[in-house]
Design goal:
This protein is α+β, with helices and mostly antiparallel strands. It is built from two helices and five strands. The relative contact order is 0.22.
Length: about 140
């Protein structure tokens, strides 16, 4: 039974740390695309809305855009981005920032501090969760 009081906090810590890892990885990928200096004209192929929630909770919708452009090396790149502006519709041409490599990373959003701030908040929250779970396990171990 005491293993239960160690397994659950370890599971919670693992989930918090994996969320922090994913947030930092996404921020670094987007930063690499913004800082590469490579741009291309991307055409918006599709715009659709994704709804989350419902039932007893509030429904939240976000727009997703599908873009396509031709990279400097001639490859056609298609990527999808969440949370784009509502003013971009199918057929519009936007500037895409991208970084070359075996897997091209691209974004049509302008570079800014929003992604970095969000990654910092997720990492800080994960740190608080890990400290709380570690404190709980230490307090449980100290109990007679």
């Amino acid at each position: 039974m005491s293993a239960f009081f160690y397994a659950i906090p370890v599971l919670i810590m693992g989930i918090a740390l994996s969320g922090a890892y994913l947030a930092v990885r996404r921020w670094l990928r987007m930063r690499r695309a913004w800082r590469s200096g490579l741009t291309a004209e991307a055409r918006c192929l599709r715009v659709y809305a994704v709804a989350r929630g419902g039932g007893d909770s509030r429904v939240r919708t976000s727009l997703r855009h599908v873009y396509e452009f031709r990279a400097r090396d001639g490859r056609t790149v298609r990527f999808e981005e969440e949370g784009g502006p509502g003013t971009v519709i199918e057929g519009d041409v936007v500037t895409a920032h991208y970084a070359e490599g075996p897997c091209i990373v691209a974004t049509a959003r302008p570079g800014g501090g929003g992604q970095g701030c969000a990654a910092f908040v997720v990492v800080a929250f994960a740190g608080v969760v890990v400290l709380f779970c570690a404190g709980f396990m230490a307090a449980f171990a100290a109990m007679p």
